[in-house]
Structures are given as structure tokens and as C-alpha cells.
Amino acid sequence: MAAFKFQNSMVSLDICGHKYEVDTTSKELVAHLQQFAGKALEMSKALKSSADQDGNTETMDAMVKDSVQFVLDSIDAMLGQDAAKQIFEGRVVTLEDACDVITYIIQEIEAARAKRMERYKPGRERRK
After folding, report:
1. What is the pTM of this model?
2. What are the pLDDT digits (tens) for 6-21?
3. b vs e for 107-117, b when ≥16 Cβ sit within 10 Å of the residue's Cβ?
4. I need a labelling partner for 71 at 20 to 30 A (CA). Which of 2, 44, 54, 104 fits?
């Protein structure tokens, strides 16, 4: 007799030796990803605009600090409380490093989703 089994929607992430499990179908995760994308774009535009206008280092430093904190908060929202603290333990957090980590997380989530959805493309051979 044939049996049905739901596909695994979890993706495993190894970030700096720390293991995380993320449910790619979680409504909360999808909401966090959408919020991150919108606010990150907004903050990026504000940083560029401020740099183009006056280049005030004090203002820029504050904006970069806020941006770093936003990315760290987003990492925690996606991976769990204090995940960013674990990942960056013993390391000075830079905007570039924080962006590298969140980009990795998003790419892995999107790759897992794409792989799962590949099965449903019409006109393609079904792959196991």
C-alpha cells in the first residue's frame, strides 16, 4: 500500500559552529523576511542619502550603529533569541559581517524553498 509522508520543511544552518533549525514554512519566518526586506531597503537608502548629502560622520556612525542593531535583531527573530550574540561572541560586530550572516540565512532558506517547489513545476520530469 502506498503511503503519504509530508516533506521536511526544516533547514539546518551551521553558523560559526552554532547549529540552528529553521522551518521554511513558518508564517512568523515569512513575516520576518518580508519585514527585513522592506526595512533594510529603507535603511540602505537613508544611509546612501545621508552620505551623499552631508557626510556628517556623527550622523553616519549613528545610522550604521542602528543598521547593525537592526540586522542583529533580525537574526534573532529568524533563528531565536540570542542567536546573534552566540554567532558574534568574541568578535567585534561590523555591518559587513552582520550583513554576510543574514544574507547566508536568507540564501539558505530560499534555496530550500526553491528545491521543494521544483517538484511542482509543470512540464518537467519528476525528480526524486
Report:
1. 0.84
2. 888 899 999 999 999 9
3. ebbeebeeeee
4. 54
